[in-house]
Amino acid sequence: MTAGSRGDVAPFTGVGHALVRDGHEVTLVTHGRFEALVAGSGVAFHPLPVDPRAELESSRGRGLHRSSSGLGKLARVVRLARSLVGEMADDVVAAARESDALLLSASLSPLGHVVADALDLPALDLPLQPLAATRHFAPPMLGGGSLGPHLNLLAGHVVDRSVDHVFAPALPAVRAQLGVPRPPRRRRRPQRPLLHGFSPLVVPRPSDWRPGLDVTGYWWPYDTAGELPDELRRFLEAGPPPVFIGLGSATVPDPAALSAEIIRALRLAGLRGIVQRGWAGLSAEADDILTIDDVPHSLLFPRMAAVVHHCGAGTTAAGIRAGVPSVPVPIQFDEGFWAARLVSLGVAPQSLTLRKLTAERLAAALTRATTEPEFTERARKLGTQVRAEDGLAKVLEAVNGLS
Question: Where is the Glycosyltransferase family 28 N-terminal domain (predicted)?
Answer without folding.
Answer: 1-106
